[in-house]
Amino acid sequence: MTASFISFEGIDxxxxxxxxxxxxxxxxxxxxxxxxxREPGGTPLGEAIRGWVLNQGMAIDSEVLLLLAARAxxxxxxxxxxxxxxxxxxxxxxxxxxxxxxxYGRGVDLARxxxxxxxxxxxxxxxLTVLFDVPPEVSRDRLxxxxxxxxxxxxxxxxxxxxxxxxxxxxxxxxxxxxxxxxTQPLDTVTAQLIAAVDTRLPG
Length: 204
Ligand SMILES: Nc1ncnc2c1ncn2[C@@H]1O[C@H](COP(=O)(O)OP(=O)(O)OP(=O)(O)O)[C@@H](O)[C@H]1O
Ligand SMILES: [Mg+2]
Hints:
This protein is of the alpha/beta class. The chain has eight helices and five strands. Helix 1 packs across helix 8 and helix 2 packs antiparallel against helix 3 (about 60-85). The radius of gyration is 16 Å and the shape is globular. The protein binds adenosine-5'-triphosphate (ATP) and magnesium ion. Adenosine-5'-triphosphate binds near residues 142 and 186.
């Protein structure tokens, strides 16, 4: 498989981490050189920023700018070099998360966010984005008892419904980049659909 950048999106508890791990296994079995990473995070600076943004109250503009600083670092230090080396990058959240959470969820102007995301990305865009679509009630039940909720996971259902609808709008606007999976289906069904989508959409 040639170098590809695949991002994974969906509200908290939709199944991103579970399915990234399963796809990783599948790609390794095909001898694909995989770089597994996540946002916010993926670098020492990004992981420090993740700790602040997920756990500490702050102004929305601070939240946006910290997330974008983490992304700029991630692109420069991890994603761009991995793609240049011919590796396949699997990234747990990327710019669509900023548009969905800070834009649709928190109400930050979308045009401004797109401009800032473009700056942080500096030309590095996913060739494929997998959206795990699930109603907030379902994901909330899945996460219940698993871990202490962070700042985002503590939000109300209405917030997650706005984020979910935002993701669906982003996917509808770019159908050639997005694959939307119904993540309420059983795990193995979702995994099979994910692998089929990746195998058909990507070269190699
Ligand atoms: N299709 C599914 N059916 C049943 N359970 C699922 C399904 N997908 C994920 N789960 C379960 O839901 C929980 C949350 O999944 P996971 O951690 O992969 O979500 P996530 O999208 O990475 O969440 P977060 O955004 O909080 O990191 C896990 O216990 C996982 O096993
Ligand atoms: Mg996860």
